[in-house]
Amino acid sequence: MSRNLTPGTLILLMSIMTTIASAQIKPAILLSNHTFSSGNPIIGNLSLLGYAGNFKLIGENAKLFNLKNSQLSIRKKYVQRDSKWYDLDLVAESGSVRVEQSFRIVRDDFHKNRVIAHRGAWKNTGASENSISALKHAIHLGCQGSEFDVHMTLDSNLIVNHDPSFKGEFIHTSTFSDLKQLKLSNGEHMPGFEEYLGEGMKQNSTKLVLEIKPTISKERAIQSAQKVYELVKKMKAQAWVDYISFDYNICLELLRLDPYARVAYLNGDKAPGLLAADKLWGLDYNQSVFQKNPGWIQEAKAKGLTINAWTVNDPKLLQWFLDQKLDFITTNEPELLLKMLGK
Ligand code: MG
Hints:
Layout: H1 7-22, E1 29-31, E2 35-36, E3 42-48, E4 54-58, E5 65-68, E6 71-74, H2 76-79, E7 85-94, E8 97-107, E9 115-117, H3 132-141, E10 145-152, E11 158-160, E12 165-166, E13 169-170, H4 176-180, H5 193-200, E14 207-212, H6 218-235, E15 241-245, H7 248-257, E16 263-265, H8 272-277, E17 282-286, H9 287-292, H10 296-302, E18 306-310, H11 315-323, E19 328-331, H12 334-340
Parallel strand pairs: 2-8, 9-10, 9-19, 10-14, 14-15, 15-16, 16-17, 17-18, 18-19
Antiparallel strand pairs: 1-3, 3-6, 4-7, 5-6, 7-8, 10-11, 12-13
The site of magnesium ion has 3 residues, from strand 10.
């Protein structure tokens, strides 16, 4: 039967199935933070989405952690050691509900220099945008974050690319395996999201700024957010990932799945107060938006939102945004910005 389905019909059917699946929230263990540092052994608070839960640490690493009134911390003698991260297994129970989940608790050695490499560090390195090597260059440079773009394929897999099409093939009407055959300009294949995330998780100095791209319908957009979130959870990548999107439905879906997710909105059309009311983590707006709305930087700071400006490449503008004390600046010139910061 599937031989007779057109891509459009297939997408419609998948959208209906997604709508049915998204009507319910599965119980899930949430953790408010996934890092520790020598100065701060407290990791974060545990909760069970949709339920009041009791938690127990299980597995071989349970002895490394303390749990008191749902607050998770790491034992001091382990804070000093050299491991970049520890995996922790947990069980939560609430009546007949029982959930087991594993988290990666990561030493916070992440850079705090505000520099976000836009689609990785590609412009001055010869790497293709959004390629694994662009990510590796951004990590090697010592950027605080490396941004990349994720789309969902026809067969609901996730792949890393900026545009909705590549070499004339639309991602939403192409299968993952077909897209993987295509070569980027530097000879690498287009990275799958899982592969890309796996590469980024080999280190703990550069965060992964994950943009989920808008797509052809609200249902598919929400499904993209769910797929991305599920993979982040499965790979235990929460410590690394900050989410961004132009699609507000995607932002809200991520927060529905995990109110602790760090989600920033890209489209520039909402005042900071609105984002704060919806519990977003930050705003990540085009540089021109801050010039048109000069009060938004102070308003965002007052509301406790993080602020990022994109894509700032001009030295004078980079300096202006540095002077405004933004949390992040997204640039195609990470080398220049790091140099301006004396790094
Ligand atoms: Mg992007």
